[in-house]
Amino acid sequence: MGDLARIFKAYDVRGLVPDEFDEPVAEAVGAAFVEVTGARSMVLAHDMRESSPVLADAFVRGARSRGADVVHAGLGSTDLLYYASGSLGLPGVMFTASHNPAQYNGMKMCRAGAVPIGGDTGLTEIRDRAAELVGVTATPTGSLIEKDLLPGYADHLRTLVDLSGIRRLKVVVDAGNGMGGHTVPEVLAGLPIDLTPLYFELDGSFPNHDANPLEAANLVDLQRAVVAEGADIGLAFDGDADRCWVVDERGESVSPSAITALVAVRELAKHPGATVIHNLITSRGVPEIVREHGGDPVRTRVGHSFIKAEMARTGAVFGGEHSAHYYFRDFWFADSGMLAALHVLAALGEQPDPLSRVVSAYSRYHASGEINSTVADQDAAVRRVRSAFGGRGEADELDGLTVSGDGWWFNLRASNTEPLLRLNAEAADETTMTAVRDEVLDLLREVQQ
Question: Which key words are in the record (predicted)?
């Protein structure tokens, strides 16, 4: 199956252009998408990468060749595509490689209502059928409608979070030359916000820094600008603007776990007793705070497909991940970095305290952050760690190995794509967290030798 087997991942499509992902492949996937989903109509958007318009047009040709009508939204963020799929009731495709380097591109696919398509929900079938269709061309019979969905997207988000009464805020936004530069001005227009934009020029070569706010080096410019401008808050978006990272007025990063807890409290105020989803490596403070505010916390594996499936199963009002993905029932159970940002702006602007004080109420523990170790024999390493911690805490294997002791816990799980073990540790005090973290890392190093 050649390149198709390499570029079709568990939840999306991603590959090097043109070596692995080119126009004939995109056209074949377009035809296969329509055949597998049975779509009579669909919606499509793309990011600012140089290859995105060309690949998107090829996909459209394939989809139309199978008789599907295509609504082409043009430039958009991934959550704009989810808005389009939800509001129009159509299956959709977003052309993006998110935070990956410039030479990559890819696709995120969903059914009507922004229901994700993954390996076990149609993506494998699309891959297999597309492999049969590469190089096969047919006359397009479906129609093509170009539609600007950005104003509707912005209006919809503003109906979900009321910012009309907030105090005036100074906000620095680093779009990383990604799609936040396209969506943020529209969403924040008319609000009591003084906006300082960083890298809003759409440029898929990412000339200033990678559009990946999970890497600390990519936050440096935002942190400096927040302090220099005397801003109240800084926001950083990834390439397709579905993730948002928050920086406080001191230029300090705010943990996504604290943002998860903050947004959860706001959603529980509107929906008392509702369920809130959190993955197993978010802070233990999240389920504690959810319970304290009358909610029902549900713990899941890491990964958006698990979060979205559990949200749909439980009817959860909100879900959060350590990776700064935030999911909303009011947004078709899909993730939206912009919607999370609006919640934080509202929470900040509705009261007089600085953001550092606001989020301190949601930051209870000391966390290691995610630490990656290259380990050839991952199973042997995990067995060694499990044995070393035997009898010192409760262990479970929902996703990798989690061991929870008195005031501390850690999770050790394998990467799906690399010979890496990912460690997250947390404790009530920094000394304990450091001790647990270092003990696990020492055990991993012994296996490596």
Answer: Isomerase, Magnesium, Metal-binding, Phosphoprotein
